[in-house]
Specification:
GO terms for molecular function: metal ion binding; metalloendopeptidase activity. This is Putative metalloprotease. The chain is built from eight helices and four strands. With 235 residues, it is mostly helical. The chain has a four-stranded mixed β-sheet with strand order 1-2-4-3. A hairpin with a 5-residue loop joins β3 and β4. α7 packs antiparallel against α8. The protein is globular and about 60 Å long. The chain starts with a helix and ends in a 9-residue tail after the last helix.
Length: 235
């Protein structure tokens, strides 16, 4: 039993840190968010809900200037005030914001937040064991290589989640009669909307896939579904 104590401690520490992070995020969102009720978006939220045989999709506005969407651990969907400001300025369309909400619904539907907790705990255990083992034989460089490998694994899993949420969003947007075009056009705008800040890390260490790959995947799924193919459509 004693030999498993370090692993149990790592798992306990990971769980405590995750719950603390969730609590802090929940408090932040409670203090800085309002229900989304917008005349141009409400009809689209009705259509997204109807595509899943549900009432209007409920979403919230996270009152920060950044441009982003968020699926909270409790399943609530948020878009930032920055996104709505860009819509007001005519830089993005209501349909493009609806595609963000559909994407975040994909994260909720696939349980990505809970899955990432399990993955993160497992990665911490593996990293600690490997660092303790390899570090004895290859000091300095060994632990660095282990950390790099676990970072790459985490990035790969995160990118998989993004592709999965994109695929869900594409299916939902098509089923709602909105189509995948707004999802694609928003991705084509994202670099400009974010101020042209490109990625500085290698692609295999990024949490999100390259925009070009995401657009290509969306076009593939769009063609398949519009031509009568089957996939994991919502509803």
């Amino acid at each position: 039993m004693l030999k498993f104590t370090p692993i149990l401690l790592i798992l306990a520490y990971t769980a405590v840190m995750w719950f603390f992070s969730v609590w802090r995020l929940k408090r932040e969102l409670a203090e800085h968010s309002t229900p989304l009720d917008h005349a141009r978006l409400n009809p689209l939220l009705d259509r997204l809900g109807g595509a899943m045989d549900l009432p209007r999709i409920r979403a919230f506005v996270y009152e920060i200037p950044a441009i982003n969407g968020l699926a909270a651990p409790d399943g609530r969907i948020f878009v930032t005030r920055g996104f709505l400001d860009r819509m007001k300025a005519g830089e993005v369309t209501p349909e493009e914001i609806a595609s963000v909400i559909a994407h975040e619904l994909g994260h909720v539907a696939h349980g990505h937040t809970k899955r990432r907790l399990i993955d993160f705990a497992g990665q911490n255990v593996i990293r600690s064991v490997l660092i303790g083992t390899i570090g004895r034989f290859i000091p300095f460089i060994g632990p660095w290589l282990v950390n790099l490998a676990t970072m790459a694994l985490a990035a790969r899993l995160s990118q998989g989640d993004e592709f999965e949420a994109d695929r869900f969003a594409t299916a939902l947007m098509i089923r709602a009669g909105i189509g995948a075009a707004p999802q694609i056009s928003l991705f084509e705008k994202l670099n400009r909307l974010s101020g042209g800040r490109g990625a500085t890390a290698p692609a295999w260490l990024l949490s999100h896939p390259a925009t070009e790959r995401r657009i290509a995947a969306i076009r593939t799924h769009e063609h398949r579904w519009q031509s009568g193919g089957s996939d994991d459509r919502p509803g």
